[in-house]
Specification:
By secondary structure, the protein is α+β, with helices and mostly antiparallel strands. The protein is built from 2 helices and 10 strands. Strands 3, 4, 5, 8, 9 and 10 form a 6-stranded antiparallel beta sheet that branches. Strands 1-2-7-6 form a 4-stranded antiparallel beta sheet, with no helix packed on it. This is T-cell surface glycoprotein CD8 alpha chain.
Length: 218
């Protein structure tokens, strides 16, 4: 029984370790100003990471439109900030810890800062991610350019309603009528000419006959 306290201590440590390994941490990434839905160009944007464990520090990362993760900063619980390239400061970001929040500040929001922002924590060789906070510019719909109505000139681009494509049947009918006219009027014209010529001959013969009679009476 002398070893029972040692067994009890080992059992307590084992239960404690199991409790730590089975513990789940909740993390939330959000805008500091809840009224923000879309950041504006050049806006100072503040994001907060809320976690149930503030002893392990927090990483901030960004997932861009192409699906690539970008490390931004690690904020320790002391707090100390370590930016990309193991730098203590950044020209584009600020990072600090305030009470239960790990804040990330985008000094001037630009197109290259668009993406989904996550905070994550490494605890007991486990990674815990927050849901992503999207930060994108508002989608602007550009209206299609209105094409001015083309100016038309009569006889060039605008079709004259009076100009119609001739019907082939109409053309054939006109040709037939033309040939019929030729066959009718040409003989009539020839007959008229013969009548005129006969009339002229008759008149001339009558004149000669009268002259002869007149000469005989004398």
């Amino acid at each position: 029984m002398a070893g029972s306290p040692a067994w009890l201590l080992l059992l307590a440590l084992g239960l404690c370790c199991l409790g730590i390994q089975g513990q789940e941490y909740k993390m939330t990434a959000r805008f500091s100003d809840s009224s923000i839905t879309h950041p504006r160009l050049g806006q100072r944007l503040v994001l907060e990471c809320l976690t149930t464990n503030d002893d392990s520090g927090v990483f901030w990362v960004r997932l861009d439109k192409d699906g690539t993760l970008h490390f931004i900063v690690f904020i320790s619980s002391l707090p100390r900030a370590t930016f990309e390239g193991n730098k203590k400061t950044s020209t584009r970001f600020e990072a600090t810890k305030s009470r239960d929040f790990y804040q990330l500040v985008v000094k001037s929001f630009m197109p290259q800062d668009e993406g989904n922002y996550f905070c994550l924590m490494n605890s007991n060789r486990m990674l815990y991610f927050s849901p992503g906070q999207p930060a994108f510019f508002p989608v602007t719909t550009t209206a299609a350019p209105t094409t001015p109505a083309p100016t038309t000139q009569r006889g060039i681009t605008e079709k004259d309603p009076c100009l119609k494509t001739p019907n082939p049947e109409t053309i054939k009918e006109k040709e037939l009528n033309f040939f019929c006219d030729i066959f009718i009027w040409v003989p009539l014209a020839g007959a008229c000419l013969l009548l005129i010529a006969a009339l002229a001959v008759t008149i001339r013969l009558c004149q000669q006959t009268r002259r002869r009679r007149c000469r005989c009476k004398r």
